[in-house]
Amino acid sequence: MSFLNVVLAETAHVALPMPTFLYGLVGLVVFAALGFVVWSYRDVANRHQSKAKAYADAHGGARSDH
């Protein structure tokens, strides 16, 4: 037998700790949780508009000549 056949024959009998569809489910849950974390940071800069306006006024304001 070739080396590839030996390797494939040995790896064909690997016992997984859980059914294969659960690996996809775990990945889906992880990505959903990370997506929620990213989603929770939406519009953070605009939460305190009074502070942002006060800061902009104190530091020269927003310039539109960029």
Write a short abstract of this structure:
With 66 residues, this protein is mainly alpha-helical. The protein has helices at 3-11, 20-40, 49-58. It is 61% helix and 0% strand.
Fold blueprint:
Layout: H1 3-11, H2 20-40, H3 49-58
Explain the overall architecture.
This is 4-hydroxybenzoate polyprenyltransferase. By secondary structure, the protein is an all-alpha fold. The protein has one domain. About 60% of the residues lie in helices and about 0% in strands. It contains three helices and no strands. The protein has helices spanning about 5-10, 20-40, 50-60. The protein is rod-shaped, with a radius of gyration of 27 Å. The chain starts with a helix and ends in an 8-residue tail after the last helix. The relative contact order is 0.06.
